[in-house]
Amino acid sequence: MRAYLYDNLDTDCREPHELSPSVPVSVEELEASGVLYWRLKDENFAEQVDKICVERNYNNRDQITVSKEGLGAAFEDKIKTFFAEHLHEDEEIRAILDGTGYFDIRDKQDRWVRIKVEAGDLIVLPAGIYHRFTLDTNNYLKAMRLFKEDPVWTPLNRPVDENPFRQAYLKTISAK
User: Fold this and answer.
1) What is the mean pLDDT of the segment spanning 28-53?
2) ∠ CA 85-31-17 to the nearest 5 degrees?
3) Using an 8 Å Cβ cutoff, are 88 and 153 in contact?
4) Nearest 5°: phi and psi at 128?
């Protein structure tokens, strides 16, 4: 996992969009925004995921393949939907099984931080954080999605600042 400030240029969202010079963002800075990260080892990946599920009360899981082949004719529309700035009223938890992509989050200063993920990464975005997702130029990512309850993926596009989950998120990160 690599994280850095996003350059905000209006070009293909699948490009790296790294400032020059780069402004890295540490795991500690991500944690200050409520983002959690684990690097899982290949030899016991499933056991590590199961342990995190027990510790964090994730009771359901499924898999998604984000690719032209996996999504068919809906591919370009899905990429646009994933890349629209939004939040969820639940955590967004992804264990990356194969491929690469980007999660962009808004940090405490409302700047875009780009997080590059690859196979072996597990990332948790807290409920209420503004974020978005895109593939990189490889156009392929396979992920395990983890859920506390039944699998639900309901994006609430910005602005939804009065949403109670957004308000709770802001309160939590202001205390950090």
Assistant:
1) 95
2) 45
3) yes
4) 95, -10
Residue 39 in 3-state DSSP? strand
Separation of alpha carbons 28 and 124, rounded Å? 14
Name the domain count of the chain: 1
Q: SS3 breakdown of the chain: % helix, strand, coil, rounded to 5?
A: 25, 35, 35
Residue 170: give its domain's CATH number. 2.60.120.10
17 labelled ligand-binding: no
Tokens matching residue 36:
């959690």
Q: Residue 6: name the closest of 30, 130, 16, 31 by CA.
A: 16
Q: Is 47 annotated as a binding residue?
A: no
Model confidence pLDDT, tens digit, residues 58-69: 999 999 999 999
- How far is Cα 176 from Cα 32, in angstroms, rounded to an integer? 6
Confirm whether residue 88 is marked as ligand binding: yes
Q: Which pLDDT band, with edges at 50, 70 and 90, does 152 fall under?
A: confident
| Band of pLDDT at residue 148, cut at 50, 70 and 90 | very high
Sign of CA dihedral 9, 126, 46, 72: negative
Domain membership of residue 45 as a residue range: 2-174
